[in-house]
Amino acid sequence: MKDIKSGVQVENDLQNLYNEFLKKAGAIAFYDIVRDIILINRSVDEKRELLEKLEKEGENVLDYFEKINDKALNIEIILGISDIEDKLGEEYFRNFKDKIVDLIRCLDSYATEMLYSLEIASQLLGKELVKENNDYMDKAVNFERLYSDVFEFLMEDGITFQEKLNEIIRLVPFRMSKHKFYDIVRTSLLNYLNDFSEREVNDYIEELKNTFNGSLRLQYGKSFDYYFTKTQGYKKFDFKTANLSEVEKLKDEILKLLLEIYDLMEMLSSLGTIVSKFIVIEKTKKYLTEDLNREDITEIIKRFKEVMKDENLEKRQELLLICEEKVNHIIASLDKLIKLIDDKEKELKNDESKDYLNNVYIEMIEIVSYLKDLGYEEIKPLSESDLKIVSDDYLEQAVDNFIQYIDRNLKDMTNIYRKVRMRRILSTLNGQFNSPEEFFEYLENSLKLNTSEEDLQLALYNIAELIISYEQNKPKKDSD
Question: Mean pLDDT throughout 60-68?
Answer without folding.
Answer: 90
